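[09:14] KT: can someone run the structure on this one? pasting the chain below
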Amino acid sequence: MAENTIETKQKKEPEKQAENDQMSEVLWWFSTAIKELIQDCTVDRNRYKILGSAMLFTWLYATLAWGYFWSTNSDSPFLFISLGIFMGGFVLSIDRVLVSSINKKRTNIAAIGLRVIMALCIGAFLAQPIILFIFSSDIDREIPILLDKKLAEKKIEVEQVYQSRKDELLANKKKLEEELKQKSDLAIEKQSDYLKEIDGTGGSGKFGIAGIAKAKQNGYMIAKNDLDKMEKDSKTELEKITKELDEINTKVTKSVSDFEKTLDGKGFLIKKEALQSLFDKDKTHGLQNQYYLLMVILTLFELIPIISKLFMPAGAYDTKVALRDDFETKVATLESEKEFGEKERELA
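[09:31] RB: done, structure tokens below
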């Protein structure tokens, strides 16, 4: 029984060692370490595995950030997951370039500063989707309010487009209605004078239709005919004005309705606007302070690999890389000189 246990352990140990070796190679690849040179560097093997772990973390972080970013613009999981993985790989490629270009044997402050600035820019952008995800519950409550505000602003904008024509039509309508009222008041006044004249309660005080009463009757009939004529003429014009006003209102309603259909509250920018709206309402600035703190922390995530490489002490691996680089440069120079000499002899 004991022999079987020992044999099982002996079988598992090579398998475990092989898994460790494979994992080490993966982490070395992430850290941009050259497998053939680092295998014999005991201390640096562990250092670059840690650096590789940091690179692996930033790659997963970038993939998740980009995946959430694309999910705010697409309802297709296949699309936003694929784009998240692709953009995460793109960020990883940039990080590997930045890390591999840091040479512990040849320090260039300006070059390092440029790399740090680039990493900060990438980190600042990647932090945005993560922060929106963290504040998503508050943002989702604010979005409907913001959409209603946008809808009201859109209605005002559309109404302003037609406002001058609408004011002109309303002015014409008011003018016609005032003229009709004047004609109507005049006809009523003439009718009242005429009736008072014939019943003897006003005017000359004589009862019956004769003389002055006849003249007032003619005046009333003229006023009434003018009113009837103006009502007939203005009816068509008022109908045209009302129809055009209805058409304008229909256009405004349709434009606002079409705009409302485009408001779904899922886009990245609307979420950013909702977050900004929350900041504006936050009188104590507590939410905004948390935002800036998270922004700094999440941005620093992207700097982890570069910071790790900068603070990592130069070891045997860096010496090997420098020597191999010098050796290959000398070999390339010698081969070039040899080839140049052979061509000179051929020409001679």
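[09:33] KT: thanks! Residues 14 and 20 are 10 Å apart (CA to CA).
[09:34] RB: yep, looked fine to me
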